[in-house]
Every structure is written in structure tokens, then in C-alpha cells.
Write a structure and sequence with these properties.
about 65% helix; 2 domains; Four Helix Bundle (Hemerythrin (Met), subunit A); about 5% strand; mainly alpha; two-stranded antiparallel ribbon
Length: about 200
């Protein structure tokens, strides 16, 4: 907020009306601006450059190639594809463990030895499984499909559709893992993630 305010004050002082979106160009004012009051703090040259640079970064949305390069929709400009793949694989590992632990505790119940603490743990494992499946689906949608899978990034329409299919398979596998306690669903999820990880390596 301070940077935006400083950039606005600076633009009035030097006679510019606005900062352009692309390449942060500064356009010349067509409307006269009011001179700042005498009480307004003056900018040193270095402060002015910092304010212009900060405002430029805030207002730069895209480059000429129109590719979105940010992991969030601010956009912030931060991507960590290997980190995202690692996070998704860790979530899939957690889903598998949740299934295995829940099934083990349930087998104890069939032997007549399920205590209340075991029942509590089953509920917690299932909630954890649900949470991590949702995390995978969320990352596929918000990080990958919204920001990384752009038609312009692929050599052909066929490559683009293949990428969409790979991401969709991961989302479907995560959804199926939510709906079952069969570890085969985790195998399917891991298989889909192997294909996905090749795209981001």
C-alpha cells in the first residue's frame, strides 16, 4: 500500500499520469496535475527509482507473449515446479498411509479388539486422506491448469490435449482415492503422478 501510494505521489511530482500494464512503461500525462503541497516529503533520486521499480513490478501483468508465469492469480511470479511435484507425491504417500492404517485398525475391530482410541484414529486417518486428496485436486486445478498448462506453451494442439488429459487423470485418481479404502486406488494415483512428474522435470 505504501509503495502504491509512493508511486502515485511520484507520478504526480514528475508529471506522469499512469503506469502502463505491459513492460511497465510510463505514459505522459495529458491532464495537468496539482503540484504537491510544500509539506509533502520530497523524494531523493534513489527513492524515486525504488518507487518506480516497485510500482512497475506491481502493475506488470504480462509480457508480449501473453504467457502467465505466476503460480497464484495475483500474479506473484513465483513458480516451483519440482516443489509442486514433491508436494503432490507427498500428499499421495499420506493418502496411501491413511488407507493402510485405517484398514489395519478395522481388521482389529473384526477381531473384537477395537478400542475407542482405535476408532478415533480411524476417523482421523480418513479425515487426513480426504484432506490430502483435496490438496492434490486443488494443486492440479489452481497451480497446474490455471497457471502452467497454456496452449501457447505447447508445440501442437495434440501435446496440449495430452497435458490436459494427464492432469485430469491425476484429479480423477485423487477423487477415487477419496471414495474408497482400496489401496489399488493409490496405485492408480501414483501411476498418474509418474506421468505428471515427467512434464515438470
Amino acid at each position: 500500500m505504501m509503495l502504491r501510494s509512493a508511486a502515485t505521489k511520484l507520478s504526480r511530482q514528475v508529471g506522469y499520469s499512469k503506469f502502463a500494464k505491459n513492460h511497465a512503461l510510463i505514459r505522459t500525462a495529458t491532464i495537468s496535475t496539482v503540484a504537491p503541497k510544500a509539506t509533502t516529503a520530497s523524494f531523493s533520486r534513489s527513492s524515486a527509482l525504488v518507487a518506480v521499480a516497485a510500482a512497475s513490478l506491481l502493475l506488470t501483468i504480462s509480457n508480449n507473449d501473453n504467457k502467465t508465469r505466476m503460480h497464484c492469480q495475483v500474479p506473484c511470479g513465483i513458480f516451483d515446479d519440482p516443489g509442486m511435484v514433491s508436494e503432490v507425491k507427498q500428499a499421495a504417500t499420506t493418502v496411501r498411509k491413511a488407507m493402510v492404517q485405517s484398514n489395519t485398525l478395522y481388521q482389529n475391530e473384526n477381531k473384537g479388539s477395537l478400542a475407542m482410541i482405535d476408532l478415533n484414529q480411524v476417523v482421523r486417518w480418513i479425515a487426513t486422506k480426504e484432506e490430502h486428496c483435496n490438496k492434490i485436486i486443488h494443486l492440479m486445478g489452481d497451480y497446474c491448469l490455471c497457471q502452467r498448462v497454456k496452449r501457447a506453451s505447447f508445440a501442437s494442439e495434440a501435446d496440449y490435449f495430452q497435458a490436459l488429459e494427464i492432469h485430469h487423470k491425476v484429479m480423477q485418481a485423487a477423487m477415487r482415492a477419496k471414495q474408497t479404502m482400496d489401496v489399488k486406488a493409490c496405485d492408480e494415483l501414483d501411476h498418474a503422478l509418474e506421468h505428471l512428474s515427467k512434464m515438470y522435470s
